[in-house]
Here is the input.
Amino acid sequence: RPRCFSLTHSWPVNCNRYVSMMRVIETARFGTIRFAENEVIAFPAGLPGFEEERQFLLVESPESMPLRFLQSIATPALCFVCAPVELVQPDYERWLSRSDRDLLAAGADS
Here is the structure.
């Protein structure tokens, strides 16, 4: 069964009191996904070619590991396959321009 992946905890969380605060989307690939607001990954400027798509969930499925899926919240049929960069290029060094870091910091406040 697919599950949402959170940067702060493993999903699903055993806390029934938060069920009423959960959001729900019906996706083309994964069916119904319930998620908390803190699991949403925001791209303030959207993605190249998909500038209107700004909110996603990182979804993992055991049979697809190490691949994960970036599932759009706004467009249930839109889902991107993601691979860990280390799988493709083990010596890759992450680097962000100052403007990208500023954009990411601004998105964290909203």
